[in-house]
Design brief:
This protein is of the alpha/beta class. It has 6 helices and 8 strands, in the order H-H-E-H-H-E-H-E-H-E-E-E-E-E. Helices cover about 35% and strands about 20% of the residues. This is Radical SAM core domain-containing protein.
């Protein structure tokens, strides 16, 4: 319809703006990822090969209780389809732990799906009841201690997944958008790559607020370092 734009249309128009060096989608629902959107990512250099796709839960029972309109297998199928077309894409996500009715088996399904997805980063939110919401009226709420324990377990898994993803990038080149402030601990320049990996490297202040090519060298659980050229 005239005057109606789909997400791929908007992304395409934005990517054609003159003077725009980089375009990153901050968050997109799994049901919004279509073949033409994926093709835009593949064929448009300005678009970062990074997608933040909220998961919330990796268990179909909990997804239904959350009123999410997809299944765990549909979610994974989309990610695998993207990987088949895109070189080392970066996937980040949001997960809620301790949603009402979540039992150990449900939580383990979430852990397993996160492992299979190979997320580069997971934002973990412990469920807390919000007055007036359908979830708040559910009777089978998780115990606070259980929620804390599951959050800690997923955090540990998320760190390992992030490290594994970053190791794939060693000796490759990244386009880093250099931040205005140096890293406070090392005094090195720092910034995020097109794959949403923060990289530290040595360089002059004149590179701040610009995009530079950095060769990724050392990867550790808490940092990634690189060098110019």
């Amino acid at each position: 319809m005239q005057g109606k734009y789909r997400l791929p249309d908007v992304v395409h128009m934005l990517s054609n703006l003159s003077g725009l060096g980089r375009l990153r989608l901050s968050s997109v629902e799994i049901n919004e990822i279509t073949t033409d959107l994926i093709d835009l990512f593949v064929h448009t250099k300005k678009i970062c090969p990074h997608l933040h796709i909220p998961l919330q839960s990796g268990d179909d029972v909990i997804l239904r209780r959350m009123n999410r309109k997809y299944t765990s297998s549909q979610y994974i199928d989309i990610l695998e389809g993207i990987r088949a077309k895109m070189h080392v894409p970066s996937f980040t996500t949001d997960v809620i732990v301790g949603f009402p009715g979540e039992e150990e088996a449900h939580f383990q399904n979430t852990m397993d799906l996160c492992e299979k997805a190979g997320f580069g980063r997971i934002h973990i939110f412990p469920y807390s009841a919000r007055e007036g919401t359908p979830a708040a009226k559910m009777k089978d709420h998780c115990q606070p201690q259980t929620i804390r324990q599951r959050k800690a377990r997923l955090e540990a898994a998320a760190k390992n997944l992030a490290f594994s993803y970053k190791k794939q990038l060693v000796n490759s080149y990244a386009e880093v958008l250099v931040e205005a402030e140096r890293d406070p601990e090392t005094n090195q320049l720092c910034g995020y790559s097109e794959r949403y990996v923060k990289i530290l490297f040595d360089g002059p202040d004149t590179m701040k607020n610009s995009i530079v090519s950095v060769r990724i060298g050392e990867v550790a659980p808490s940092f990634v370092s690189g060098s110019l050229g």
